[in-house]
From TrEMBL:
Keywords: Peroxisome, Peroxisome biogenesis
Family listed: Belongs to the peroxin-16 family.
Annotated protein name in UniProt: Peroxisomal membrane protein PEX16
Subcellular localization: Peroxisome membrane
Length: 264
């Protein structure tokens, strides 16, 4: 990735990290008008950055979060002693005669901070596989797939515009957003040879369709009573589950009021 593309990904990641805090803080300071203003500005900035990545830098299907979180255990380099043994040709493992189990030899045990439960070969394979996944180029998108990804990127802006036109109690913003999400996924489903990161992103978007059960006005009219009844039954009749379901029941009304929790 070029340096400008990395900067765009960094700014996009920062926006996704602070959007909920910005919405809640602005609502506390400037009220409802300030809250919707900051929501529009953040969604507009995110859409512009994503469209630049899609159309100018040909970034393909964009993941969320844009920058994959660092797995420090997998990224941790091998112990210096291990590398010295590799270079000197020493055998790092011992194979049991009866069990054929591969274990690390006592002479090559690393320090406590660098220990892991897998064999050196397993760790090297996982590290190399991780590097290959991160370095895989994005799958080129045709016209149909570019339109589908553009629909997914602009969907929040169209939803906000429809909210301003028809109001928050109308079904039209909910239906418009659902149609755009489903259409985008349908068009992208024809794309073959996706890398692992892109397949995971499409699965994540498919699972997020369940959020429409929790989004107003569907939640207010249909889902709320059934969800609360199910959580109450689980809390009353399944031992131990109440520690999770009762706080969740108390949290749902507050969660519903935050736009970026539902629609971001």
């Amino acid at each position: 990735q070029s340096l400008p593309q990395q900067k765009l990904l960094t700014w996009l990641s920062v926006l996704e990290c602070v959007e909920v805090f910005a919405e809640m803080g602005t609502a506390r300071v400037w009220g409802e008008m300030g809250r919707w203003t900051i929501i529009v500005l953040i969604q507009l900035a995110k859409a512009i950055l994503r469209l630049l990545l899609l159309l100018w830098y040909k970034a393909g299907i964009q993941t969320s979060p844009p920058i994959v979180p660092l797995n420090r255990e997998q990224q941790q380099p091998l112990h210096p002693q291990d590398m010295e043994d590799n270079s000197s040709g020493k055998d790092q493992t011992y194979v049991g005669r009866r069990s054929s189990r591969v274990v690390r030899s006592l002479q090559n045990t690393p320090s406590l901070q660098s220990r892991h439960w897998g064999s050196p070969q397993q760790r090297e394979e996982s590290q190399s596989r991780r590097v290959e996944e991160l370095n895989q180029p994005s799958t080129p998108l045709g016209l149909q797939e570019t339109i589908a990804e553009s629909m997914y990127i602009t969907r929040p802006l169209l939803h906000l515009l429809s909210l301003g036109v028809w109001g928050q109690r109308s079904w039209k913003p909910w239906l418009l957003s659902a149609v755009l999400d489903i259409s985008s996924l349908s068009l992208l489903s024809d794309l073959k040879d996706l890398n692992r990161r892109e397949r995971a992103e499409l699965r994540r978007r498919t699972i997020l369709l369940l959020y429409y059960l929790l989004r107003s006005p569907f939640y207010d009219r249909y889902s709320e009573g059934r969800i609360l009844l199910l959580l109450r039954l689980l809390a009353d009749y399944v031992p131990g589950v109440g520690f999770v379901t009762r706080p969740l029941m108390d949290y749902l009304p507050a969660w519903q009021k935050i736009y970026f929790y539902n629609w971001g």
